[in-house]
Amino acid sequence: MNLNILGLAIPFFVGLMLLEYAIAKRKKLSYFNLHNSIANVSIGIAERLCDVFVAGIFYFIYDDLQKYYGLFHIKPGVVLWILLFILTDLIWYWYHRLAHEINILWMAHVVHHQSEDFNYTASTRITVLQAFVRTGFWCILPLLGFPAGMITSLLLVHGLYPFFIHTRLIGNLGVLEYILVTPSHHRVHHASDEKYLDKNYGDVLIIWDKLFGTFMKEEEEPKYGLTKPLKTYSFLWQHFHFAIELWLSVKQQKGFTSKIKMVFAKPERINPNVREEAEKIFNIKQNPAPIDKPLNRYVIWQMVIMLATLSLFILFEHYMPLQLKIAFPLLVILTLINCGAIMEQKKWIFLVESLRMAVLLLLSFYSLAFWQVKMMVILLFAGVLVFYYDQIRRAYLLYVYRRRRF
Fold it and tell me: In degrees, to the nearest 5, what angle opens at C-alpha 39 toward C-alphas 38 and 42?
């Protein structure tokens, strides 16, 4: 069978997250917040799903660049594998540093730093936009002559390491602190404390930070997240808030030159008041009401089902029909939007739920042979929804939120 073994990575990493949670709980360490963890994993689910469709594109980009524009035609060898690793890590350092220093790049990277928890779930906060930006930097490698097979193989291994440094359970690692990026180093990088800002950009090797003057040793316990916390679980807002803030900041500038400078300026140049303006335009605010256990269970089970089905989807992606490859991603994105909105106790979740049910209905039609039956079911679903929309909506919100105020 032609299986995509990357589908097995999901249960593997989820298992590590649960193990970290179990150890932290046993030691009575409050390193996990349920809703932050769900928001973190939601971002990771979207990235893994998108990666199914774009990962192959990166390979062909590297391959074409190396074949037609490569300075050399490098063949695999021990020395060249080591050289490729060093160059990959160096390029990562500069990509990562520039992603913190240039607004247009920070727009892709900011999602990774939004979590106010620092644990393995935070490591999943990567967007597909960030993957595209990184690819732009790594295109240097095929231009030097490294073949696509070497690059993608090394990036796969190189990309695993950062997962393990997103934890507060591992302390000082002795002599390794002088060579590798350790959890201690990376805790500094994710800190929002002023003394820790813009430090420790390395991915695997810490030598680049020491060489280029961006190294900082962990001292007191860091405070994690953005310097100005986002205060929302919204799946969409977490992805696009900075793009909107940047757009509003550019609009405030007078003259074309000033507008371009803002796009490439440092994030600290963004007026802090722009966040409030953006939130007001899109009516973004976190509901202060406590989230009860039934609501937690409703969201948790949706996330469990999404993780399980995504793992199967990736594992058997080569056997998936086109209809499923289109409908399943749409179903996942709608679910992630819904979960974020439910945690903020929004009333409009029923609209997203209706769209999700429509997608599920269309998916179920794939196995039906008679178009007459399909049309009848569609009309029945639409009729019930139209004529009893308000009653169904109130019943759904009552079921989800367990309150009669809707």
Answer: 85
